[in-house]
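ESCALATION

Customer reports they have been waiting on this structure for their group meeting. Please prioritize. Original submission:
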Amino acid sequence: MASKHKQIPLHVDISEQIHQRIINGDYLPGAKLPSERELIAEFQVSRITIRKAIANLVKQGLVVTHQGKGAFVAEKGKVTYTLSNPLTFLEEDLARQGIKLSIQNLTFEPVTVSEEVQNILQLPPDNPTAYLQKKLLLTDNVPGCVDITYILPDIAEKFAAELQQNMTFPVLERNDIAIERVAAVIECTNASLELSEYLDVPLGHPLLVYRHTAYINQNRPVVFGESISRGDRFCYSVNQRSGASRLI
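Update from on-call: job pushed to the front of the queue and completed.
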């Protein structure tokens, strides 16, 4: 029977119900979902509504469709990025997992930054300007992360074309700007309206925030930013040697 919730479109409500069944294990990875006819009968809706609901799940990377065969629960697990060496670039890490990374540039422009960013990047008080870049990162064509970075103006202007098509750290390394260290912290947040639209998730969906500052020679900060990723699609891993500091 169709859901009685009226605050969201019916096709979104249905896709969320199917999503919950996937989470609960009612539909296992690789399993075929009920046919369109079965879903139409269960939810008492039109064929177009069911197709929109399935399309929502495909956009979220939860379901794949095969023409003439139906819809199946996606078998891929989470994308893992190792923090054991923060200078291991994301592309390298994903390539080892057989995952294709693609980049969609959203914003690249000079802005007057907040006092926090000004202090982190050690910008002059009379000209607190940096380049703001927003990128949408897709793993195997599924939106997984919004990368927001502030880059020193001289570097951003010199390598603008490359930065808009590639990840930031590899561009710097290729141009002999060696990153000596990265200071980072991981936090949790929930999807705002803007992030929910970029990442194809519901408003309030759990997200991971990887906030980082990159330094080059003589402890000079060059990039500050945060990578905001879907909690259901992305995770971080750490390997510690015996004798390393422990959280517990």
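Sent to customer with the following note: Residues 10-24 form the longest helix (15 residues).
Escalation resolved.
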